[in-house]
């Protein structure tokens, strides 16, 4: 939000006049208000009214006393026969025993510590009683039943019918705070309201058939019929979607208002020379995206573009062409990678693609060329200084490194473009850090191989324009994927190792991925693959959740025992596994697996090890050796998940595959099939058939469609996770809205928000919406917005 707007909202008395802003202690009393705040973090009337029922139930069939079944929830229409209140034995308190009858049979009602009950429940009184049927002292009873007493003149039968079918809301409750207690607080709050400012502008409500806010609260908390709370939910979802989309629309608008140096294409420069030496033709998809980017770069406001494309779809070439365009225009470009391994790999492949164009100032360099500076945490001081100088002086047109390194230390002569690879958490803060390094905001291109469903792109990434590289350049080979059920079919596991031997014999290479490093460090940090970024290279999760991606169910983290040998586990019976669930053993580790494979199943092959805790120069040496064919089998963690490109590798074996997320497996699979030979991906698991874990693996094996898989992945997380809210441990602002299911609604809200912001940027005509937007922005709940 712009400052002007913050001030404006601050000046308005709206927040104070708003009945929803009233403190709960003024409404339900101090004690209850304290409990509501402590247990459920509800402070205002608005908080309470937006604490929606999780579900609704009726009181249960109206039942004859003669046909009551144990454990049923029932409602009975009956007459009080007798009442007796007595003290509890040996304890403080009292119990009131009531016997009711409907003429056919009797039933006991028991109330604890409600001695006043005997005044209203006098013999002959007709009432409706509901609760669960239990048995005490061989008599059927309802303990602490809900009740409604009928007046003399009421039509008992009709009243009974209404009472039994009334929808009772069930609220997310807490200890000391029952759903019923919450319900009665909500009743009190609702009864006080007679008018509410509506954050949804009237034209929006009219166009989309949405009921007003007060009516919506009434219908979600006290629905008369089921279709009423459905109407209410639809409307209240808009309350979540619209402010969010307004924030994003304002951000897009602010970005358009920012000045940037236009970097139009200059003919006859580096870009043309590069195109001339490119050994292949751009696909039409690449062509289209490159054209779009060229238009963006030529504009006088910063490009904000997200480029999605499957692994191997050729994003790097597109990014490099953008960088060269900027260099031709006199600026510099920086490429940020999430890990040092990837920064080094980018550096190598960009040097390759550029050839003499990257060797300005060297004997064999192109006189029109530039220099490419690599900056990593592990560089020697001298090399580093030279690279920093190249960046600061402008001799390096292209600078490559990890985020942390670049944000900290580098100065640029004229930074024109920032390219971010495989990093979803490149948020506003990082952008600001880089902005501080240039006079005007640089253009921004974010690349991701993780397909992001449209709806998520519209929310978490809503302030970026999106491009997709849908087609793969020729030469990509098919990948087949199989689940290897090591528990029920041990010989399949043996076959897995044979397949690796066969591929190696045919001149190819293989990856074996394990969930854990296992070098003796405590398990907790064992999986952390983070490098300078302090995070993990988790290309799997659009929201950056589950940093190590492993063990979505947390199963991998338990225990410290050395992992069993793969083939021994293979002999565990299904029963053993069932008994041992959910955490039968620690996940297989890179170190142990590499040792066992070296000694046994793959003895004689050249086996290398790669994980996040190797020294950077070791990592680089291993990757270089693997890329050069000096290593047959690379046993690794997910450190190889993103971007690693060794076309000669044809087999990907993932051990304990059930401990990885769906998108992550898809990423790992993308490491093979990058050359001319077909790829093979084997997902080895101990998870028994029919378990959700096995179904997940089945889904990965069944499709190569990354968008479909990321949908499946996201469906398994809570919505809050999608937007990163749960990472901060805070309440998500999304309660009803389902980012994946409510695509239509999100699209409509986005459109409405764009129109509103277009015609009235500060929403002066819609103070209630402006207040909702301000509340969203100022709350920590907007944190996820900065994770794009
Ligand atoms: P991504 O970064 O999207 O995973 P890359 O840019 O690394 O993909 O491309 C994967 C491989 O395909 C690289 O070896 C690259 O040189 C090659 N490549 C890219 N574009 C084309 C194309 N149009 N035709 C043939 N090969 C291509
Ligand atoms: Mg790449």
TrEMBL record:
Molecular function per GO: ATP binding; DNA binding; DNA helicase activity; hydrolase activity
UniProt keyword Hydrolase present: yes
PROSITE patterns xrefs: HELICASE_ATP_BIND_1, HELICASE_CTER
CDD domains hit by this protein: DEXHc_RecG, RecG_wedge_OBF
Record keywords, A-Z: ATP-binding, DNA damage, DNA repair, DNA-binding, Helicase, Hydrolase, Nucleotide-binding
Region Disordered: start-end pairs: 515-569
Pfam families: DEAD, Helicase_C, RecG_dom3_C, RecG_wedge
Domain Helicase ATP-binding residue range list: 296-469
Composition bias, Low complexity: 534-561
InterPro entries to which the protein is assigned, alphabetical: DEAD/DEAH_box_helicase_dom, Helicase_ATP-bd, Helicase_C-like, NA-bd_OB-fold, P-loop_NTPase, RecG/Mfd, RecG_dom3_C, RecG_wedge
Domain Helicase C-terminal: residue ranges: 566-715
GO biological process: DNA repair
NCBIfam families xref list: PRK10917.2-1 (NF008167)
Protein name per the record: Probable DNA 3'-5' helicase RecG
Gene this chain is encoded by: recG
């Amino acid at each position: 939000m712009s400052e002007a707007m913050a001030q404006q909202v601050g000046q308005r008395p709206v927040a104070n006049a708003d009945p929803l802003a009233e403190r709960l202690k003024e409404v339900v009393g101090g004690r209850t208000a304290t409990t509501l705040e402590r247990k459920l973090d509800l402070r205002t009337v608005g908080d309470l009214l937006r604490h929606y029922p999780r579900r609704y139930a009726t009181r249960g069939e109206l039942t004859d006393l003669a046909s009551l079944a144990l454990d049923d929830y029932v409602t009975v229409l009956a007459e009080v026969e007798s009442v007796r209140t007595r003290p509890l034995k040996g304890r403080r308190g009292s119990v009131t025993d009531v016997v009711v009858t409907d003429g056919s049979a009797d039933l006991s009602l028991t109330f604890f510590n409600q001695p006043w009950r005997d005044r209203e429940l006098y013999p002959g009184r007709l009432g409706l009683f509901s609760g669960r049927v239990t048995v005490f002292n061989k008599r059927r009873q309802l303990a602490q039943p809900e009740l409604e007493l009928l007046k003399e003149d009421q039509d008992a039968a009709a009243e009974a019918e209404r009472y039994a079918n009334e929808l009772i809301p069930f609220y997310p409750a807490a200890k000391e705070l029952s759903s019923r207690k919450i319900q009665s607080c909500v009743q009190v709050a609702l009864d006080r309201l007679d008018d509410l400012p509506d954050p949804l502008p009237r034209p929006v409500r009219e166009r989309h058939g949405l009921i007003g806010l007060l009516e919506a609260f009434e219908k979600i908390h006290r629905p008369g019929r089921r279709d009423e709370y459905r109407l209410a939910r639809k409307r209240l979802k808009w309350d979540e979607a619209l402010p969010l989309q307004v924030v994003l629309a304002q951000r897009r608008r602010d970005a358009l208002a920012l000045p940037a140096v236009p970097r139009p294409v200059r003919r006859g420069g580096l870009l043309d020379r590069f195109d001339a030496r490119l050994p292949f033709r751009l696909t039409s998809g690449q062509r289209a995206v490159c054209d779009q980017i060229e238009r963006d770069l030529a504009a006088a406001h910063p490009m904000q573009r997200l480029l999605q494309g499957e692994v191997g779809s050729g994003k790097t070439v597109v990014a490099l062409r953008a960088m060269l365009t900027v260099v031709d225009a006199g600026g510099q470009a920086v490429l940020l990678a999430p890990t040092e391994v990837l920064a080094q790999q980018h550096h190598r492949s960009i040097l390759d693609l550029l050839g003499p164009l990257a060797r300005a100032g060297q004997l064999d360099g192109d006189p029109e060329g530039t220099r490419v500076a690599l900056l990593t945490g592990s560089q020697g001081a001298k090399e580093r200084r030279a690279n920093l100088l190249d960046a600061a002086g402008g001799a390096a047109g292209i600078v490559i490194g990890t985020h942390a390194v670049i944000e900290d230390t580098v100065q640029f002569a004229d930074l024109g473009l920032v390219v971010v690879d495989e990093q979803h958490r490149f948020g506003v803060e990082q952008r600001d850090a880089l902005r501080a390094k240039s006079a005007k905001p640089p253009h921004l291109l974010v690349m991701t191989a993780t397909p992001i469903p449209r709806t998520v792109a519209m929310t978490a990434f809503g302030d970026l324009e999106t491009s997709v590289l849908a087609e793969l350049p020729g030469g990509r080979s098919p990948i087949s994927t199989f689940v290897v059920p090591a528990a029920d079919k041990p010989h399949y596991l043996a076959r897995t190792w044979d397949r690796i031997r066969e591929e190696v014999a045919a001149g190819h290479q293989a990856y074996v991925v394990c969930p854990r490093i296992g070098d003796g460090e405590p398990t907790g940090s064992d999986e952390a693959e983070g490098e300078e970024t302090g995070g993990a290279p988790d290309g799997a999760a659009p929201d950056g959740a589950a940093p190590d991606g492993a063990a979505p169910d947390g199963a991998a983290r338990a225990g410290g025992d050395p992992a069993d040998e793969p083939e021994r586990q293979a002999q565990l019976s299904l029963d053993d596994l069932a008994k041992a669930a959910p955490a039968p053993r620690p996940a297989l580790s890179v170190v142990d697996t590499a040792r066992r494979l070296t000694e046994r199943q793959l003895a004689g092959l050249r086996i290398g090890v790669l994980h996040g805790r190797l020294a950077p120069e070791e990592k680089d040496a291993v990757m270089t050796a693997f890329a050069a064919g000096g290593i047959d089998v690379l046993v690794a963690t997910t450190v190889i998940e993103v971007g690693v490109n060794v076309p000669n590798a044809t087999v990907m074996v993932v051990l304990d595959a059930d401990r990885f997320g769906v998108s992550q497996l898809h990423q790992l699979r993308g490491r093979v099939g990058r050359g001319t030979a077909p790829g093979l991906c084997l997902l080895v698991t101990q998870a028994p058939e029919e378990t959700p874990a096995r179904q997940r693996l089945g889904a990965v094996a069944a499709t190569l469609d990354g968008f479909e898989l990321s949908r499946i992945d996201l469906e398994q997380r809570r919505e809050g996770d999608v937007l990163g809210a749960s990472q901060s441990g805070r309440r998500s602002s999304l309660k009803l809205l389902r980012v994946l299911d409510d695509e239509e609604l999100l699209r409509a809200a986005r459109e409405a928000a764009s129109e509103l912001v277009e015609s009235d940027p500060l929403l002066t005509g819609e103070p209630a919406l402006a207040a909702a937007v301000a509340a969203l922005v100022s709350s920590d709940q907007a944190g996820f917005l900065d994770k794009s």
